[in-house]
Amino acid sequence: EVQLVESGGGLVKPGGSLRLSCAASGFNFNFYSMNWVRQAPGKGLEWVSSISSSYTYIYYADSVKGRFTISRDNAKNSVYLQMNSLRAEDTAVYYCAANRPLMGMEVWGQGTTVTVSS
Amino acid sequence: QSVLTQPPSASGTPGQRVTISCSGSSSNIGSNTVNWYQQIPGTAPKLLIYSNSLRPSGVPDRFSGSKSATSASLAISGLQSEDEADYYCSAWDDSLNSWVFGGGTKLTVL
């Protein structure tokens, strides 16, 4: 079965850190770029970060640049999002999603919830 | 304020055809292909249309997409109650070096 499974979400105080993980199975992870997309409560989708299949290209939304770091381990079929200096506005469901070149994000995880609150 | 502009809501009765528009600019829709996602509340988004007009395996042919210049459209024909969901357009933006999404359109089946 093709799937992505996120973990690592939780409640954290402003200024704190969290590391999200996303484990892939059922497809050739090495061929896919990986993305993190978040959705604040009652809001739309917001792209957070992407990493290419060969680690060559890494991109961040301006809202997280300098605070979040995306990484992947192709040997473990996993992608990660290290989130530092968290703010209340980072509160959201975080989805990992996979895409091949010239295609949309065709595989999505179920999401993991991050709540930043004192 | 989203980079891509969609109407916040749309509606139709069962069997009708509805369209959802998505407006962008030369750096996103004008330069790259458009993807559409369907999100039923409480669930993860699902890829509905990719490369402007292609459907992933399993997506009914009632769903179709098109693109012209810096705008795109999603059409749903033979509307069904299970089509009630939020729909998002998305494209890569060459100026921002980022994926950009529309604000989403909530489709109500009356």
Task: For the record, give the distance between the C-alpha atoms at the N and C termini of chain A, rounded to a whole number.
Answer: 39 Å
User: Class by helix and strand content of chain B?
Assistant: mainly beta
What is the mean pLDDT of chain A?
Answer: 97
Spans of chain B with pLDDT under 50 lasting ≥5 residues? none
What's the helix-strand series of chain B?
EEEEEEEEE
Cα-to-Cα separation, first versus last residue of chain B = 28 Å
Profile the largest sheet of chain B: 6 strands, mixed
Main sheet characteristics of chain A: 7 strands, mixed
Shape of chain A: globular
Radius of gyration of chain B (Å): 13 Å
Largest interface: A-B, 21 and 25 residues
**What is the gyration radius of chain A calculated from CA atoms?**
13 Å
User: What is the number of helical segments of chain B per DSSP (H or I, 4+ residues)?
Assistant: 0
Helix/strand structural class of chain A: mainly beta
Helix content of chain B: under 10%
Outline of chain B: globular
Oligomeric nature of the chains: heterodimer
Query: What's the total helix number of chain A?
Result: 0
Number of strands of chain A: 11
In what range is the share of β-strand residues of chain A? over 45%
Record keyword descriptors for this entry.
heterodimer; A: 118 residues; mainly beta; 7-stranded mixed sheet; 4-stranded antiparallel sheet; globular; B: 110 residues; 6-stranded mixed sheet; 3-stranded antiparallel sheet; 9 strands
Task: Kindly describe this structure.
Chain A is an all-beta fold and 118 residues long. In chain A, 0% of the residues lie in helices and 53% in strands. Chain B has 110 residues and is mainly beta. Chain B contains no helices and 9 strands. Chain B has strands spanning 9-12, 18-23, 34-39, 46-49, 63-68, 71-76, 85-93, 98-101, 105-109. In chain B, strands 1, 3, 4, 7, 8 and 9 form a 6-stranded mixed beta sheet that branches. At the A-B interface, β5 and β10 of A face β3, β4, β7 and β8 of B.
